[in-house]
Design brief:
single chain; alpha/beta; ornithine cyclodeaminase, domain 1; Rossmann fold; 2 domains; 8-stranded parallel β-sheet; 12 helices; 16 strands; globular; binds nicotinamide-adenine-dinucleotide
């Protein structure tokens, strides 16, 4: 019997799953995870030190989405000089009842989309409702969808982008102001980015904190997506200590990110300082922001359930809109 799979390119995914719908899919995904209804083993890392690379294998099943997913995503630090994206991947999707393969999706774009959408979901659940100024750290691939995610849920008027590579920040500002029809300005210091920001997104490859805690204004919400290794810290310890701390997944966050592991090892925070998983807030089981003036911090390490939820929604919409290419297996 002939079996077909659907191949979805970046263009197909952009058409099938707009940011706003991706934000809704992330809230659902995190809520399912926190309710214990997702099978998601901790992802497998293969380090490839010869080429400054890491390969991540991220499997998942969730009855709610009716699919089994596996993302293979490769992160190679030296790709920028070769003109190749740092992060590239593929998502394989299978029918949850029969195990039949049904789709193959561009995992490079899907990763950027779901990572931005997760920060959109966190911003919607945790930021002040009048948040209008956003600071973006890291003018790369994720920085772009971070800004899109926040713009999907708040009336953003202005974005400030900081990147030590000045021409990357300038190119980001030109491209994103056109794409989102808001003012986007490149700034030359971390302080200039954060001291007026209502929402701060960090999506960098820095191994040390990217801003000074003292420069944050009261009531700021932070989405921190960059650090996924135990020795890599993007957020200052003082910020982690005083913030209302929310994670995507306790086990993954405590096992993977230096943003928590470093202050934990130093005895400066305790595991019990994690207030909740985002899914508990999305499901209404924990309240979100506690005060207008407090700092809220969403730490994302990136989860297979996000890829599964985004891929499943994109696939359903693509079938309806007849997007993608059908290929005989
Ligand atoms: N949490 C998640 O789900 C998730 C998903 C995808 C990627 N990531 C992580 O996000 C990070 C960014 O990924 P990307 O694909 O955008 O990479 P990228 O290479 O496209 O962009 C990274 C940018 O960070 C900039 N940068 C470095 N140090 C900085 C600093 N101190 N301040 C501001 N900018 C700085 C670099 O100049 C570069 O422009 C990576 O660490 C990646 O592993 C997380």
């Amino acid at each position: 019997m002939s079996r077909k799979i659907r191949i979805l390119s970046e263009k197909d995914i952009r058409e099938a799953l707009p940011m706003r719908e991706a934000v809704a899919a992330m809230k659902e995904a995190f809520a399912e995870l926190s309710a214990g209804r997702v099978t998601m083993p901790v992802r497998t890392h293969i380090d490839i030190p010869e080429h400054a690379g890491t390969a991540l294998f991220m499997p998942c099943f969730a009855e709610r989405f009716g699919r089994i997913g596996l993302k293979i995503v490769n992160l190679f630090d030296n790709n920028a000089v070769k003109g190749v994206p740092r992060i590239q991947g593929l998502v394989c999707l299978f029918d949850g009842q029969t195990g039949s393969p049904i789709a193959l999706l561009n995992g490079t774009y899907l990763t950027a989309l779901r990572t931005g959408a997760a920060s959109g979901a966190a911003t919607d659940l945790l930021a002040r409702t009048d948040a209008a100024t956003v600071a973006i750290f890291g003018a790369g691939v994720q920085g772009r969808t971070q800004l899109e995610g926040v713009c999907a849920v708040r009336p953003v008027q202005k974005a400030l982008v900081f990147d030590p590579v000045a021409n990357a920040a300038a190119a980001f500002a030109a491209e994103m102001s056109r794409a989102l029809c808001i003012e986007v300005a490149a700034v030359t210091s971390p302080r200039e980015a954060v001291f007026k920001a209502d929402v701060v997104c960090t999506a960098t490859v820095s191994t040390t904190p990217v801003f000074d805690d003292a420069h944050l204004r009261a009531g700021t919400h932070i989405n921190a997506v960059g650090s996924y290794k135990p020795d890599v810290q993007e957020i200052p310890t003082e910020t982690v200590r005083r913030a209302h701390l929310i994670v995507d997944h306790r086990t993954s966050a405590l096992g993977e990110t230096g943003d928590l592991i470093i202050p934990l090892r130093q005895g400066l925070i305790k595991e019990s300082d994690i207030y909740a998983e985002l899914g508990q807030i999305a499901a209404g089981k924990s309240p979100g922001r506690a005060s207008e003036n407090g700092i809220t911090l969403f730490k994302s390490v990136g989860l297979a359930i996000q890829d599964l939820a985004a891929a499943a929604r994109a696939f359903e919409n693509a079938v309806e809109k007849r997007l993608g290419q059908l290929v005989d297996l």
